Amino acid sequence: MAGNMVSYQQILYEVKERIATITLNRPEQLNAWTDVIAEEVWQATHAAEADNDVRVIVITGAGRAFCAGGDITGFKSENPRQLIDKLPRTYDFSQRPDYQSRAAYFPSLSKPVVAMLNGAVAGLGLVHALFCDVRFAAQEAVITTAFSRIGLASEYGMAWALTRVVGHANSLDLLLSGRKIRGAEALRLGLVNQIHPRDGLAEATYGYARELADLVSPRSMRIIKRQMWNLPFQTLHEALISDCDEMMQSNVCEDFQEGKRAFMEKRPPRFTGK
Fold it and tell me: Which of 93, 95, 155, 217 could crosslink 255 through cysteines, CB 3.0-4.6 Å?
């Protein structure tokens, strides 16, 4: 099936088999993050969000890196707080404010975002990977928080996100030392969900993404993603009440009725997301 490819200045955007792929496209600079990339990734993720033919978003990098951090030559001279808080004019302020910053908005998207970490991941690149929902990495990928080794503090919510993923002690180790880890250790720490040889990474990642796109209810993915990213701000009681409300609504939705029919008829489901 042919894909629909759109070329921006510093990213590539393609939709194929209900999967939108966003590729950071500065391979000679190891896809170092710039203001242009920041704006274009926001545009592309929201194009995918608005496209009814897209069910999963994959983010990766061209060449031998995912993203080697922020390109200090590519950022404008701004007050750091203004840089963090600067949002596109069309941002949806009905969403949870915690997920409305420049680097932490992936959780506000209703569709699952899968990071395909094909190579080096550092600093701001790791921040964006952490705010994805699922991470697949090449065994050869080198991952580092980087900040402490260039005289910076943990930035853009990395400490919060990293602690949610690998725990307090492991986060302190990775942030304080700025040491480099590879795929096998990243998997052991829980930083990534799966690792694969670099030449098999795309096949594994897209196999997973197609399974989500073809076999899973878009409505269920939307709700489950919101439930999971809301958990840090809820008590157990609040989570239970929210879960009960969602289950009551799910019991009468079209996707649940289709899921039951597909199960009884022993066929793949034809979910609509309603």
Answer: 217
